[in-house]
Design goal:
This protein is α/β, with parallel strands linked by helices and 177 residues long. It contains seven helices and seven strands; from the N terminus they run H-E-H-E-H-H-E-H-E-E-E-H-E-H. A seven-stranded parallel beta sheet has the order 3-2-1-6-4-7-5, sandwiched between helices.
Length: 177
């Protein structure tokens, strides 16, 4: 069986203007001091793909416009809503005040395995993803409602932050759509 690849014009994607008006997944992604601009751009692109509500860029996390973010975001930095918050802890506390259930994506005592996470479709969620070396700051983990852990069975102890973001966004999309 032959499978002809579709042309971009056949994909019926939303324009950036249309994207701003459609319903979003009740999910916010918080980047806690993410260093790599390519990782930031990749998170923008994955967030756009699954209509994430907003991205919070915290601490040293770079902000658009930036050529290195654009290189991996491919324009998703223009369609996605985002906010810069100087302090990740401040962002988490603000989201909790606004009614979000906040999870740090981290390997921690008592964490919920992502495949076992059962969200309530009537609630809003935020996932915090951390620095490439140190992960989510402990004070941010402490302020979160809990931790979500991505099950892993290889020899490495972690995933690239943008890959982890893609995995948790996809799982949230499947369970909240």
């Amino acid at each position: 069986m032959m499978h002809r690849k579709l042309k971009i014009t056949e994909l019926n994607r939303l324009s950036a203007e249309e994207f701003k008006t459609v319903d979003k997944l009740p999910l916010v992604i918080v980047l806690d001091n993410v260093r790599s601009l390519h990782n930031v751009g990749s998170v923008f692109r994955s967030s756009d793909a699954f209509r994430v509500e907003c991205i919070y860029l915290c601490g040293i996390t770079a902000q658009p416009p930036h050529a290195e973010i654009h290189k991996t975001a491919l324009g998703a930095e223009l369609s996605m809503d985002w906010k810069y918050v100087n302090n990740s802890l401040e962002a988490v506390n603000k989201l909790k005040e606004e009614g979000y259930t906040v999870y740090s994506v981290e390997q921690a005592e008592g964490s919920i395995m992502l495949d076992e996470w059962l969200p309530d479709k009537t609630k809003k969620y935020a996932f915090v993803l951390g620095n490439e070396v140190k992960g989510v700051q402990q004070e941010v983990v402490d302020a979160s409602n809990g931790c979500i852990e991505i099950p892993q069975c290889g020899t490495k102890h972690s995933l690239n932050v943008s890959v982890a973001a893609g995995i948790v966004i996809w799982e949230a999309y499947k369970k909240l759509s």
